[in-house]
Structure formats: structure tokens, C-alpha cells
Amino acid sequence: MKKMKFIVLAMLGVTLATVSCKKEQISPDITTPSEPTDNPSATSEALISFFQDNLNSEKQYFTIDASSSSTITGAKGSQLTFSPNSFETSNGTVVTGNIDIQLIEIFTKAEMMMLNMPTMGQLSGNQIAPLISGGQFKITASQNGQKLNLVNGYGYSAVIPANNGVDPNMQLFYGTAGASDTVMWATADSSMLFGQGNQYNAYFDSINWVNLDYFSNLPGTQTTVQVEVPQGFDNQNCVMYVSFDGLNSLGALYNSSNNVFTSAPNYTLPVGTDIHFVAVSIIGGNPHVAIISSQITNNHYEVIPALTQTTDTQFAVDLTNLP
User: Which of 52, 220, 296, 305 has the fewest CB atoms within 10 Å, i.e. the most exposed one?
Assistant: First the structure.
């Protein structure tokens, strides 16, 4: 656990409002389909490329001076302030000169789906649960193409727009890619977060993926959820999201067998929850999707009869219109 410098309190001008403990990385038990794909035109490579292209389009680039206090402002309003001499190379050498900063800002469910960034947080015992997000960010630093790390004891402050209003439950999570390259979120350590007015003020002591979140803890009897898709689709060439109506929260069904996606064994959902299932696959370079309104019932089993071809633009519009 990193030790924060007292200068951070002066920068933020407040006392610690939220502190949480980091957990070990948990990867959901993602299964390999038990049968070959019947639709060879829907490939995992095409799906990965689709999300990667969308992710690349969201990258913003900045240059800062390693020896000076520097603030960058993202296109969506996030402000990050880095302390002097706070970055080092992989061998522990403190960096001088210019540093390249790359930033990605994700605030809406539509953006999360287009970039394949669901909000699933880690619990104990290899279990996961949906989170409500106040914003996701990826911050990377490099010099001459070499990845940089934060010097031990250093972090950076952040001012984040509270687009859905300040929520006192909000905490910090750090993201790590598991075996499936799916980013999972774990509560952060040595970090600060408080909200006032229309913004959050935070202190991050980690770069890479950062998320303002808290567990949704939706009421209701818990049940597993299954979604049947047409033959030829599985968790290698299709992504299945669970969009929670009225919440900035996006779940995902990771496991599949015989063209049926399931929330088991990693998590359950409460009966009575209003949601939209969103299935996404890429065929012939075009997104094929299904968006189904539903309410979770006991032992929920949903059937999606078909995925329909659309365009990137129309898909983004349809996702933006979700409740």
C-alpha cells in the first residue's frame, strides 16, 4: 500500500471522505463454448477489432514536463494534475524531460458498450456484482515509447464532472484485465474521493484503468440469468450485456454453452429488475445487434431470436436512447 504525501491534502483542501481496500485480481470463470461456431463469418477477431477501433478513437494525447506540476483537461471535462518528478522508468529511474500522457474518458452506458467496458466489481470468493459508475478513465504515461510508472508515494489529483449529480456512495476502483482481457474492477487503496457541487475531487495512486463506482446492491431475491442466442453465436464471437434501466450500470454475461449465455457461476441478479439485454456481434465488418427490454424473473431465461445488421452510427444512437 502506498503512502500518500501530505501535500495531497493541501491540494484537495479536504479530509479523506472515502477510503477502500484493494483486492486481489479475480477473473470470472469464463467458459469455452462446448461446440464449434456454426457461423464462421462471426469471428472473435472481428469483434475484438471492433472494440479496439472504438477504444483507439477515444484516446487523447498530451505532453507534460516531468519536472513541473502539470494539469491536463480531457475533452469531456476531466482534469488531472501531476506532481513534479512523479514518474519513473521500469528500472526505478526518475524521469526528466517531456512525458506523453494518454487519456480515455468514458461516462455513459453507450460508451461503455461501444468500448466493451462493463461495470462489474470484484467480491470475495471469485464472485462479481454490478457497479454504478460515475466515470471510467484510462491514464497511461510513456517516454520515447517506454511505459512509465508512478514513483512510490506519488499520485495525482483529479477533478471529474459529476454528470449524474454527486453521489455520496461513490468510491474508487482500479481495473485489471483478466485472462479473457475483460477489465474487472477492484476497490482501490490509499485513494481519496469526495463530491461537491457538480464535480468529484479525487486522488489516484495508480495509472491505467480507474473507475468512480459503487456496488448497486439492488433489492430483490437473487437468481441466475440465462439468454439464448441463435446457433453460431457464443462468448467468442458475441458479447452479451445487461443494461440496468435508469442506472449508469452495465453488466455482462461472460459464460456460454450451446448458444446460451449465463450469469452463473459468478453472479446473480435480483428478481424484478428492469433491464435491457444487448447482444453484439460483428459479421462482414458490420455490427449485428439485438436490444431486448425485459424484467428479471426467477430462474430467468430469455430467448433472442435474431441479431440484426446495423451501422456503427445507428448502433451508438440506439445505445444512447436506452433508459
Answer: 305
Q: How far apart are CA 18 and CA 173, in angstroms?
A: 11
What's 33's DSSP letter? P
Q: Which residues of the chain have pLDDT under 50?
A: 1-27, 30-38, 40, 179
Overall fold of domain 222-320: Immunoglobulin-like (2.60.40)
Please give the Cα distance from 34 to 90 (Å, whole number): 41
Q: How far apart are CA 139 and CA 157, in angstroms?
A: 12
**Single-letter amino acid code for the residue at 73:** T
In angstroms, rounded to a whole number, what is the distance separating the alpha carbons of residues 186 and 176? 8
- Rounded-to-integer distance, Cα 211 and Cα 279, Å: 24
Question: What is the total residue count of the chain?
Answer: 323
Name the pTM for this structure: 0.86
What per-residue confidence (pLDDT) applies to 315?
A: 96
**pLDDT at res. 181:** 65
DSSP state of 7: H
Grid cell listed for 57? 478513437
What is the Cβ-side half-sphere exposure of residue 146, based on CA atoms within 13 angstroms?
13
Output the pLDDT for position 28: 54
pLDDT (0 to 100) of residue 176: 80
Q: In degrees, to the nearest 5, what angle opens at C-alpha 320 toward C-alphas 241 and 121?
A: 40
Domain ranges of the chain: 58-215, 222-320
Q: Check residue 37 and give its pLDDT.
A: 40
Q: For residue 94, what are the contacts with CB-CB under 8 A and spacing of at least 6?
A: 66, 85, 87, 88, 151
Angle, vertex CA 103, rays to CA 287 and CA 20, nearest 5: 100
Query: Based on C-alpha coordinates, what's the Rg of the chain?
Result: 20
CATH topology of domain 58-215: Chondroitinase Ac; Chain A, domain 3 (2.60.220)
